[in-house]
């Protein structure tokens, strides 16, 4: 019986390895029309800048196309205040992707907190597009410090514990987005977004199941700490925290910052669903079943993308 | 309405295409104007092949029968004979019985009742038929083997029949209500392949959409790895599908897996799957009877929209000890039954234990072990136990205690070592376990020959527990640290129920069932305990989070009444009403559910059936994947989540052919669904956000219609069936697919099932399955589009960038594309050998004989040309290639 069993295991393995379980399949997706993509993330005391592009077919090699001939109107509290102009380089160059100067439209008007904004996008080839959002409030005086005594090792490097504490306003439903980055003193054009580790039950993408993962960003809402002081433990590689460079003749530590963004529920849903789409699509359940697809959240009527306000602040964590 | 008419027409057309004529419709030619009776009988017999059975003493050959035409159907001639002679006829199995007229003047009403048992084991028989040959009334035994028959004659001729059993008849003078307990004997030897579907059931019952397979047949149908499985056997019948290859998910007429009510000895079972859905929890060794209802739900069932699977466990042999033992590649099982006290008390104990980790373990280790990582432990198994005790207190009282317990375990432990840092080590553990427990205490009581009651108290629970741990240690000469994370999560559902059901036969024409159910239910949608600790030579940090989501408490109560009403010899109906109330915190829902089904005997071997039932469902299963997984979450209706409802219409034709050895049935159905649940489009399964599950689900409408057709051969050396389903299945949610209706993920236009079994001789039998199903409806990505970036390059201020070179995917309309069709052939052969102690059986099964790679997943090849110039091609992956397997069984 034992020999028979062993024989069966060998046969089983051979069968599985001999039979290719994969098969190519063709889907005809040509019936699907292009959609207009609106990407507009805006903040306080800046003009509104949006990017208009077009979707492209999944099974064809082609470059992204941009929508150059649209009329974009901006409304503040339902009153028309501006018509966006097409620009190659926006007033704030940080608002655009470095390699791409196409499809940008910008307002003359500066945007403010506590106002509701709406845009309409008109083009003869596409239906009228509309979107609404606002700029959420920024949190008050967060505290960030390195807890010197706490560090732990992963592989050959040590992680330092950076604690971020802030008070959550109980009167509103708040959404947060945190990154850690480092500027390069010797090269002002260079900014390095750092990966860090954070394990906190409040944060969907920092679950304990992702033990070995580090994050370029975390996002969460205040559901589990509404109206309380929240302390987050961020583990940052001490290599970056102690990185030194020459500033003229002086050797200095390159600054590392915690970036805190207060975002809207729309943007939170957008980032969460985009992450989820990536997780599902890139192997979260690959090879096991056909999962229900995740459509990335969008608040653009008759189009795709995101239109949302935010506010942000940056705090130095090393000295 | 158009769809109902369409389904109706298709059903009729299929019937008309296949069969034009009933046996009694056959025309005969009679050349003379006058015949004496024996000549007329001989002429009919010669021209039709029908055999007549009668006593010469009852025939008056001097009397001539006058005929007015030359061509008659057999039925017309028989009616003329009845009219002119007063004789009565009874047609069965190509035979016509002629009997003398009964003397109506002596008639008075008597009630015959009793219990029908297997003469060998003493098991009560469910669904056996008792026919009053004089009045041509037929009744069947209920779930507990009890029958009650009203008759209007003092001279009673009863025929007791059940397929696979020898018919027994009783003739007696009944002056008062009489108890006849009957033991009937099986005529089928153990090794013979039996198909349990008898002509009586097809013709007599007003029930639509009923499927019935015997345990013997369930064991004979070829399955993957030679493991008999109740659900997989039913998946081979028309109208029932599996969600994914190899799994024990049951999808009935386009419904969701949670729309099926599974009852084990009357107690609901919430998770019917072992090993992530590859096996079902129901052990065929312990099963006596399985009834599945796809439509025309009797009023005694409630709580689900699409189907009911009512499983009765064996009660244990009252007369002698029997058992079996089986060892297979993935599972072993044993069953023993026998009397504790002969004719008084019996028991059955059946258990199974699987060991797929013995096969998969070496494969997993081979695949994952390398210099850096080692798989330390891989466990994957399940076990389950069925036990039942049956105690006959006296002729009127009987007690049963039925227990089920089962558990699945999956455990994976691995260690990783960094080759560059020899002083560090990390290990992780994943441990999941889940299972059901059910218990039922039942008391059957016979008050009188008219009134029977069944009272039971039951408990059922399903629990899911998971534990994840991660440990990391680092040590060097001057520094050491230890990091630990632990996460525990559990969820579950528990019911405590009681119910009382009465069966009452007040007259010849009525058989009533009525009763009350009461269920107290509590659902734990999740307790989570996460902790982390970090300790090094200088410090210690400990964090702990405990999250308990609310426990839902609710009460569900039902009252029902149903009447099996024989309106005339041709027309029979089952009319019922079920009222169910659902009561939870700040929520009260009442559902009044009419049920009606009817049968009209168009000809002796042709029955038309129709039914309507309204169903509601207050329990919903939240499942993110197309497969049954143990972390699927049961939730109840709330203030925001309304109960689901369905309207089920069915119309069918049943026909017996070729001396009743072949049964044909075609049933059209139309089902509307309301308040059905789905997840929001952008719901995240990563987040596991159970606390706000209500925000993540939406409710919409559904519509499913089609026709199930089955041609079944029930006796002879070759038995089996051919089934075909033509169906459409749609859903509509305001929040999905721009509010437009779309084909549901379980929409399958064509579904063909062929299941054949052939007995070569007493030592060898073989079985074949072939099935073909339209490909799965899928939503695929159809275009790329640029995303807003969630990073920035700003030195001075943190800003988001409005466009990036990263692309997101736009998906097609819901389920706008089709995967390739699914088809597969399975083969099995059984070698039987009689031994001194009983019988030995070797089974060899080949699953997927021609190695069809049936798609279960859809994946993409990413062709990257540069950062913003890439595309995808699609491919599918299969799960099972050709899989040979074997098992060895002993019966004693």
Q: Any overview of this molecule?
A:
The complex is a heterodimer of chains A (319) and B (892). Chain A has 2 domains: 36-134, Immunoglobulin-like (Sandwich); 143-297 and 310-316, no CATH class. Chain A contains 3 helices and 21 strands. Chain A has helices at residues 2-18, 238-241, 265-284, and strands spanning 22-25, 36-43, 47-54, 56-57, 65-66, 71-76, 79-87, 104-110, 116-123, 126-134, 143-154, 157-167, 175-183, 191-194, 196-197, 218-221, 229-237, 244-247, 250-253, 256-263, 304-316. In chain A, the strands form 3 sheets. In chain A, strands 2, 3, 5, 6, 7, 8, 9, 10, 13, 14, 16, 20 and 21 form a 13-stranded mixed sheet that branches. A 4-stranded antiparallel sheet of chain A has the order 11-12-17-15. Chain A has a two-stranded antiparallel ribbon with strand order 18-19. Chain A is globular and about 60 Å long. The N and C termini of chain A lie far apart (71 Å). By secondary structure, chain B is mainly beta. Chain B folds into 4 domains: 16-99, Phage tail protein beta-alpha-beta fold (3-Layer(bab) Sandwich); 104-184, Carboxypeptidase-like, regulatory domain (Immunoglobulin-like, Sandwich), CATH 2.60.40; 199-313, Beta Complex (Ferric Hydroxamate Uptake Protein, Chain A, domain 1), CATH 2.170.130; 322-779 and 814-891, TonB-dependent receptor, beta-barrel domain (Maltoporin, Chain A, Beta Barrel), CATH 2.40.170.20. The radius of gyration of chain B is 31 Å and the shape is elongated. Classes of the chains: A mainly beta (319), B mainly beta (892). At the A-B interface, helix 1, strand 1, strand 2, strand 3 and strand 4 of A face helix 7, strand 30, strand 31, strand 32 and strand 33 of B.
């Amino acid at each position: 019986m034992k020999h028979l069993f062993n024989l069966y295991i060998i046969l089983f393995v051979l069968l599985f390895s001999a039979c290719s379980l994969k098969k190519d399949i063709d889907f005809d997706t040509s019936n699907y029309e292009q959609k207009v993509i609106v990407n507009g993330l805006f903040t306080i005391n800046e003009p509104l800048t949006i990017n208009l592009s077009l979707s492209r077919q999944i099974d064809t090699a082609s470059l992204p196309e941009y929508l150059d001939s649209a009329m974009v109107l901006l409304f503040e509290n339902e009153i028309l205040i501006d018509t966006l102009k097409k620009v190659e380089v926006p007033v704030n160059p940080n608002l655009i992707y470095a390699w791409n100067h196409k499809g940008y439209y910008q307002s003359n008007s500066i945007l403010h907190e506590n106002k509701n904004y709406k845009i309409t996008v008109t083009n003869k080839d596409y239906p009228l597009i509309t979107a609404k959002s606002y700029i959420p409030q920024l949190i008050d005086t967060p505290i960030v410090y390195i807890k010197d005594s706490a560090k732990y090792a992963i592989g050959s490097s040590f992680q330092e514990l950076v604690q971020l504490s802030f008070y959550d306003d109980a009167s509103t439903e708040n959404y947060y987005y945190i990154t850690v980055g480092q500027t390069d003193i010797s090269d002002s054009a260079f900014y390095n977004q750092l990966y860090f580790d954070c394990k906190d039950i409040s944060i969907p993408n920092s679950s304990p199941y992702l033990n070995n993962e580090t994050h370029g960003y975390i996002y969460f809402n205040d559901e589990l700490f509404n109206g309380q002081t929240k302390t987050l433990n961020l583990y940052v590689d001490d290599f970056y925290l102690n990185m030194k460079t020459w500033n003229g003749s002086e050797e200095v530590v390159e600054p590392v910052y915690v970036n805190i963004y207060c975002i809207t529920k729309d943007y939170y849903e957008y980032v969460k669903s985009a992450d989820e789409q990536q997780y599902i699509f890139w192997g979260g359940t690959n090879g096991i079943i056909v999962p229900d697809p995740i459509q990335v959240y969008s608040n653009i009527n008759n189009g795709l993308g995101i239109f949302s306000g935010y506010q942000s602040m940056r705090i130095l964590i090393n000295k | 309405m158009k769809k109902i008419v369409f389904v109706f027409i298709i059903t009729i057309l299929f019937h008309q295409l296949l069969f034009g004529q009933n046996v009694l419709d056959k025309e005969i030619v009679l050349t003379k104007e006058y015949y004496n009776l024996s000549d007329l009988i001989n002429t009919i017999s010669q021209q039709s092949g029908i055999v007549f059975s009668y006593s010469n003493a009852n025939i008056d050959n001097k009397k001539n029968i006058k005929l007015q035409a030359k061509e008659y159907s057999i039925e017309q001639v028989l009616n003329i004979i009845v009219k002119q002679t007063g004789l009565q006829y009874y047609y069965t199995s190509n035979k016509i019985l002629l009997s003398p007229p009964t003397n109506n003047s002596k008639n008075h009403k008597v009630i015959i009742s009793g219990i029908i048992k297997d003469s060998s084991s003493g098991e009560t028989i469910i669904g056996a038929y008792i026919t009053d040959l004089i009045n041509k009334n037929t009744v069947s035994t209920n779930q507990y083997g009890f029958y009650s028959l009203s008759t209007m004659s003092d001279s009673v001729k009863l025929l007791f029949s059940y397929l696979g059993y020898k018919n027994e008849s009783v003739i007696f003078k009944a002056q008062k209500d009489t108890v006849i307990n009957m033991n009937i004997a099986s005529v089928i030897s153990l090794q013979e392949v039996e198909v349990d579907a008898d002509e009586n059931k097809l013709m007599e019952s007003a029930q639509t959409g009923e499927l019935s397979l015997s345990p013997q047949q369930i064991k004979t149908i070829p399955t993957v790895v030679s493991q008999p499985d109740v659900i997989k056997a039913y998946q081979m019948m028309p109208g029932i599908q599996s969600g994914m290859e190899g799994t024990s998910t049951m999808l009935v007429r386009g419904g969701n897996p949670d729309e099926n009510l599974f009852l084990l000895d009357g107690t609901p079972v919430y998770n019917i799957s072992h090993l992530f859905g590859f096996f079902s929890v129901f052990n065929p060794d312990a099963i006596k009877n399985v009834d599945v209802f796809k439509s025309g739900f009797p009023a005694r069932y409630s709580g689900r929209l699409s189907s009911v699977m009512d499983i009765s466990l064996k009660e244990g042999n009252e007369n002698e000890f029997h058992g079996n033992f089986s060892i297979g590649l993935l599972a072993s099982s044993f069953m023993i039954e026998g009397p504790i006290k002969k004719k008084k008390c019996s028991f059955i104990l059946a258990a199974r234990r699987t060991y797929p980790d013995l096969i998969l373990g070496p494969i997993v280790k081979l695949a994952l072990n390398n210099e850096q990582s080692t798989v330390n432990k891989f466990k994957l198994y399940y076990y389950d136990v069925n036990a039942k005790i049956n105690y006959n207190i006296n002729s009127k009282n009987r007690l049963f205690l039925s227990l089920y317990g089962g558990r699945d375990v999956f455990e994976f432990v691995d260690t990783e070592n960094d080759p560059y840092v020899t002083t560090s080590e990390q290990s992780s553990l994943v441990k999941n376990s889940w299972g059901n427990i059910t218990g039922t205490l039942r008391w059957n009581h016979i008050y009188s020959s008219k009134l029977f009651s069944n009272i039971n108290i039951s408990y059922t629970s399903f629990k899911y527990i998971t534990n994840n741990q991660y440990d990391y240690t680092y040590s060097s000469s001057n520094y050491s640290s230890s990091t630990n994370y632990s996460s525990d999560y559990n969820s579950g559902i528990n019911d405590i129920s009681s119910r009382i059901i009465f069966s009452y036969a007040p007259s010849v024409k009525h058989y009533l069932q009525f009763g009350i159910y009461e269920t107290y239910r509590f659902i734990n949608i999740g307790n989570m305990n996460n902790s982390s600790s970090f300790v090094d030579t200088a410090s210690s940090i400990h964090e702990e989070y405990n999250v308990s989501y609310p426990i839902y408490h609710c009460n569900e109560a039902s009252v029902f009444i149903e009447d099996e009403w024989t309106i005339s010899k041709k027309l029979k109906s089952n009319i019922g009403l079920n009222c169910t109330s659902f009561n939870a915190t700040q929520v009260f829902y009442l559902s009044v559910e009419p049920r009606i089904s009817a049968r009209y005997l168009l000809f002796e071997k042709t029955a038309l059936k129709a039914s309507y039932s309204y169903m509601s469902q207050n329990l919903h299963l939240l499942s993110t994947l197309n497969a049954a997984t143990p972390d699927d979450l049961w939730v109840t209706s709330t203030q925001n989540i309304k109960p689901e409802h369905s309207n089920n219409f069915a119309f069918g034709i049943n026909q017996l052919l070729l001396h009743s050895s072949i049964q044909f049935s075609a049933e059209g159905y139309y089902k509307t669904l309301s308040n059905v649940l789905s997840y929001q489009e952008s719901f995240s399964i990563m987040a596991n956000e159970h606390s706000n599950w209500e925000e993540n689900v939406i409710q919409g409408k559904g519509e499913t219609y089609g026709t199930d057709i089955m041609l079944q051969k029930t006796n002879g050396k070759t038995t089996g069936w051919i089934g075909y389903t033509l169906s459409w299945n749609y859903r509509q949610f305001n929040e999905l697919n721009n509010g437009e209706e779309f084909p549901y993920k379980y929409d399958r236009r064509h579904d063909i099932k062929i299941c054949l079994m052939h007995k070569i001789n007493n030592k060898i039998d073989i079985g074949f399955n072939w099935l073909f199903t339209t490909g799965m409806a899928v939503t695929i990505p159809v275009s790329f589009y640029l995303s807003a970036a969630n990073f920035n390059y700003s030195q001075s201020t943190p800003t988001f960038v409005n466009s990036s070179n990263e692309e997101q995917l736009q998906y097609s309309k819901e389920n706008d594309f089709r995967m390739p069709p699914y088809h597969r052939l399975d083969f099995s052969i059984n070698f039987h050998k009689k031994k001194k102690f009983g019988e030995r059986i070797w089974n060899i099964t080949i699953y997927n004989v021609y190695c069809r790679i049936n798609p279960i997943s859809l994946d993409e090849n990413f062709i990257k040309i540069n950062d913003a110039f890439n595309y995808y091609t699609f491919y599918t992956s299969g799960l099972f290639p050709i899989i040979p397997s074997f098992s060895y069984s002993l019966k004693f």
